Amino acid sequence: MPFVNVVHGDRLPEAPLNIRVPMWRPPVWLVLLFWLVRGLVRLTILCGRYWCATGPAAVLLWLWWRRGWLAPVALVLAVMVLCLAWWRLHRRSWLRCGWYPAVGRWRRVWVYRRRWAAAMATTGLAVSFGGDRYVPQLLRVRCDRWADRVTVRMLPGQTPDDWGQVALRLAYTFRTMTARAQAGTRPDRVVLVFRRADPLGAVVPPLPVPAVPDLSALPLGLTEDGDGYQLRLARSHLLIAGATDCGKGSVIWALLSALGNAIRAGAVQVWAFDPKGGMELAAGAPLFTRFAHHDPDAMAGDLEDAVKAMRRRADRLRGLTRQHVATPDDPAILVLVDELAALTAYVGDRKVRDRIREAMSMLLSQGRAVGVHVVAALQDPRKEILPFRDLFPTRIALRLTEPEQVDLVLGDHARDRGALCDRISVTQPGVGYVVLEGRTEPIRVRFAYLTDADTAALATGYARPGGVP
User: Fold this and answer.
1) Which residues, at least 6 apart from 139, have a Cβ–Cβ distance to it below 8 Å?
2) 419 domain-assigned
3) Could you give the CA distance from residue 247 to residue 398 in angstroms, rounded to a whole number?
4) CATH number of 143's domain
5) pLDDT at site 139
6) 170 and 239 part of one domain
7) Residues 299, 452: Cα–Cα separation, whole Å
8) Dist. CA 168–CA 189, nearest whole Å
9) How many Å apart are CA 184 and CA 201, to the nearest integer?
10) Is the pTM of this model over 0.85?
11) Is 156 helix (H, G, I), strand (E, B) or coil?
12) Same domain, 445 and 351
């Protein structure tokens, strides 16, 4: 039936509409030219991106073309001799400026970039929008002896915590031991720290006792970067949490060792409380100005005496200074509690327990500025056991039994930021994570281990004035 239009009742015949689009077939030479230009552009980009490989290759080829095969061989041998001499004469600068940058570029290409798109897709970090797929951009890889630091440009809407939640999956993807996410130098960047080897696998021996202890930098152990870890006790309190046999004693004895000369000079007084009958701290009795280990009522009285000393010092220093400076005439007071839960939760007498809680609350809330510092260790970090946990600016979490306990000790989302306390091996006592006031990323540390002979020597050699008969 023919197509018709009806106009004012008239039927007019009309030809079928031709909807075919005219096709223009480019000549073969133009297609070849297009693909040639496109290939050259891509080759140029690749050569510029991987200049560290293409540059030397181009130089060697030019030398072979102009001078023969002896010239590039001689150049390679000369570079190898210079690198060997550099390594022998100054190994540290060779590693920092020569070897580790080369390893970082190699691992960027052959380890991370090869699996990058698949890793982003399987961990949910790649995003599809409007029919297009967006993948976070791998920017830079820096290596050292122990770890790779991978800088990534995040997609809009992502935060470092999103990357921290999948950090462990990324570690398995790239065949590394562990991984954690840190905020980058710019708001749109995140730094992934992939640890290839563990510098904390071996026991840390006792560190040298500082001749003049600095309460703002007390050496206690080693960090996962291989550097020394220094604890800031000035204007702070310290909470140590961990399961049984996790190494809480290592932290306590390393701290007492770092304060050895200050204790012997009388600039620091240690008031020790060991509710477990003195089993842990009895070896250091010559170091302690006060040592309570049996009667909860006596412990409550000593804590109340510490509160009175704190208030007297605050009255004396009011209007003169904002921070107490420890001297033999006016020493800092270190309130050391080995098992805090035994005092705040497990004491049978309710009145004594309330006295202890009130005294601890006063010391934690008002003692930092006047030189009264609380160092407490415990196993159970639940809120009902330690209601004033937030009053400890510095916290150390050793091996814990449950993932939820990590956030209880170190703060919300601490485990997502890399504090895998529940994954610390039982064969690594003294390994833990530290969160400092004003810093969100936890630091992995192994504290120095003092044997019974070391603690005995410490107590004898650095006893308080009049501590050893």
Assistant:
1) 151, 152, 153, 189
2) yes
3) 7
4) 3.30.980
5) 92
6) no
7) 26
8) 19
9) 28
10) no
11) coil
12) yes
Cβ-contact 396, 237 below 8 angstroms: no
165 & 226 share domain: no
Residues 248 and 358 in one domain: yes
pLDDT less than 50: residues of the chain: 1-7, 468-469
The reported pLDDT for the residue numbered 3 is 45
Structural domain range at position 322: 218-461
Give the whole-angstrom CA distance, residue 392 versus residue 361: 11
The CATH number of whichever domain residue 457 belongs to comes to 3.40.50.300
In 3D space, the residue among 193, 248, 192, 253 whose CA is nearest the CA of residue 432 turns out to be 248
How many helical (H) and strand (E) elements, i.e. helices and strands, does the chain have?
15, 18
3-state secondary structure of 262: helix
Same domain, 178 and 283: no
**CA angle, 303 then 264 then 285, to 5°:** 50
| 292 vs 303: CA distance, rounded Å | 10
Q: Which residues pair with 313 in a beta bridge?
A: none
Say how far residue 236 (Cα) sits from the centre of its chain. 20
pLDDT in the model for residue 14: 62
Q: List Cα–Cα distances, 208 to 224, 228, 266, 365, 412, in angstroms.
A: 20, 12, 19, 33, 35
Residue 316 within a domain: yes
Residue-level pLDDT at 448 = 92
Task: Please state, in angstroms and rounded to a whole number, the distance separating the CA atoms of residues 469 and 462.
Answer: 13
Q: Are residues 193 and 229 in the same domain?
A: no
